[in-house]
Amino acid sequence: MASIEYEVFVAHSNENGRVIRERWRVDGKLCRYGGLPAVLYIDEFTGVVTLEEYYRNGQLHRNDGPAQIKRDAQTGEVLEQRNFMSGLEVSKAPRATPKEP
Questions:
Q1: What angle do CA 78, 14, 9 make, to 5 degrees?
Q2: Which of 21, 84, 85, 101 could form a disulfide with 60 if both were Cys (CB 3.0 to 4.6 A apart)?
Q3: What separation, in Å, do the N-terminal and C-terminal C-alpha atoms of the chain show?
């Protein structure tokens, strides 16, 4: 069985020690499983996540919503949402597939 290499980069603010960046990689490519974002940028003072990106195997990808979300650092209001599937931008967010009972 082949081994999988996971790598997580976390940057902290010099000002207050808060986490301000996260990048998750699997086998050297941006990727995170479990429906969680692979890239996070967090405002060091407000704690608001200003950029959230979902990757699968190095490509922007999300099955159940936008793969890129940008927010205002002060209010947390969503400024922009972009939808991607396998690295290609699509016009509408994919719909979540209903789970079988």
A1: 65
A2: 84
A3: 33
Residue 66's Cβ-count burial label (10 Å; 0-12, 13-18, 19+) is buried
Please indicate, yes or no, whether the overall pTM of this predicted structure exceeds 0.90.
no
Tokens 């990106």 found at: 53
Pick from 44, 38, 37: nearest CA to 74:
44
Q: What is the pLDDT of residues 24-83, one digit of tens each?
A: 999 999 999 999 999 999 999 999 999 999 999 999 999 999 999 999 999 999 999 999
Joined tokens for residue 68: 């890129």
| Inter-CA distances, 15 with 19, 42, 44, 52, 65, Å | 11, 13, 8, 22, 34
pLDDT band for 3, please (50, 70, 90 cuts). Answer: confident
